[in-house]
Write a structure and sequence with these properties.
The complex is a heterodimer of chains A (114) and B (235).
Chain A: H1 3-24, H2 32-41, E1 43-48, H3 51-59, E2 76-79, H4 82-85, E3 92-94, H5 100-104, E4 107-112
Parallel strand pairs in A: 2-4
Antiparallel strand pairs in A: 1-3, 1-4
Chain B: H1 3-13, H2 15-18, E1 23-26, H3 29-34, E2 47-53, H4 57-63, E3 70-72, E4 79-82, E5 89-95, E6 105-108, E7 115-118, E8 130-132, E9 135-137, H5 142-151, H6 156-172, H7 175-186, H8 190-204, H9 219-230
Parallel strand pairs in B: 2-5
Antiparallel strand pairs in B: 1-2, 3-4, 4-5, 6-7, 8-9
Helix pairs in contact in B: 5-6, 5-7, 8-9
The chains are: A alpha+beta (114), B alpha+beta (235).
Chain lengths: 114, 235
């Protein structure tokens, strides 16, 4: 009578094993998605910008986020003040998600939460 | 008959069970019931989770014969099906506060009321009941339920909805709730803490769903909670 429940419990335990694996992977390559989501969570808004404009921000001293180098192809991800980003000619606001716009962008400028 | 009326009708029907110490209404109905006047505006599945602590299991069973209008499902005997469309399904689930490992899950075998006992539900503690008319509905403390929602693996559409339920709870959290949440988070294993932070990052980037809390509107709260958790120090 409880065979279905036993099977469900087994699947829950299986997912727990998967979670332990994910935890062990957190600093390795497959943990990149967590690190990318973590960076994006800190952003109030995001802009797709040209690589040239990204270069300008970096030259002005804004640091890149290491997680961008962990992706293939690499992305330049940089936090900067909104007023600075709004002066970039190439800026195009994109939704903060792991959707097509974020994944397609080669360079992303982020505005940090106040 | 709207969903709120069905939910309240169902809870009235099982009032003797709700009065047993160690029984709590859990799951996605909690934010619905915490809305002003238990307005129930969130879209959720048409069932209600009733958490039964394993210590209360025998006492709950004594009251089951008094519950009219429901019968146990042949497929899943912990689910009780309504005989009338004016009620919704009851999903009995087990809580065992003695569980240390949140991933531990077992079946409490019983011919009358078997229970799936979820380790993550050991985080849940009794809170203040909500009263609807003369009906007192036992609810958990917000912090423990929110942690349970965040630590449990979420998959597919139901997973997204469950995370939005967690968001609904976070939106309701007071400063005291956040303090309690942070304290309890700090006592969890490193794997559980990572799972919670991972789910928060997913929540932060989710798209809105109709009649559910809007993740875009609460992204700042999610980011603040992540930072709060990280201040504890992370492996």
């Amino acid at each position: 009578m409880t065979a279905g429940m036993q099977e469900r419990a087994r699947r829950v335990r299986q997912r727990a094993q998967l979670r332990a694996w994910e935890y062990r992977q957190r600093r390795h390559a497959s943990g990149v998605w967590f690190r990318l989501r973590r960076v994006l969570a800190d952003a109030e808004t995001a802009f797709d910008i040209s690589e040239e404009d990204a270069g300008r921000l970096i030259a002005e001293g804004y640091a890149t986020e290491p997680v961008g180098d962990e992706l293939a192809p690499k992305k330049t991800i940089v936090f900067a003040p909104k007023e600075r980003i709004l002066h970039l000619a190439s800026r195009r606001e994109i939704p903060l998600s792991l959707g097509a716009a974020t994944l397609a962008a080669r360079a992303i400028a982020l505005v940090r939460w106040p | 008959m709207d969903f709120r009326a069905k939910l309240i009708s169902t809870l009235r029907a099982i009032r003797p069970v709700l009065e047993v110490p160690g029984v709590l209404v859990l799951g996605s109905e909690v934010p619905n019931l915490l809305e002003p006047d238990a307005a129930c505006t969130l879209v959720v599945s048409q069932d209600v989770d009733i958490g039964v602590s394993v210590q209360a299991h025998e006492a709950v069973k004594q009251h089951l014969p008094n519950i009219q209008g429901f019968s146990a499902s042949a497929d899943e005997p912990s689910v009780w099906l309504p005989h009338s469309p004016e009620n919704i399904e009851i999903n009995f689930i087990g809580m065992d506060p003695r569980i240390q490992d949140l991933s531990e899950t077992y079946v409490l075998e019983d011919s009358e009321l078997p229970l799936m006992v979820f380790g993550a539900l050991s985080l849940v503690r009794p809170g203040h009941p909500v009263c609807v008319g003369d009906l007192s509905i036992p609810l958990p403390r917000l912090a423990g339920l929110l942690l349970e929602k965040l630590v449990t693996d979420r998959t597919a559409v139901k997973g997204e909805r469950d995370l939005l339920v967690a968001l609904g709870l976070l939106a309701l959290a007071s400063a005291d709730d956040l303090e309690e949440l942070t304290h309890e988070y700090g006592a969890l294993s490193k794997e559980s803490r990572f799972a919670i932070r991972s789910n928060l990052t997913i929540l932060s980037l989710m798209n809105p769903l109709p009649q559910m809390p809007d993740p875009h509107a609460h992204r700042d709260r999610v980011a603040a909670l992540l930072r709060r958790f990280e201040r504890i120090g992370e492996p």
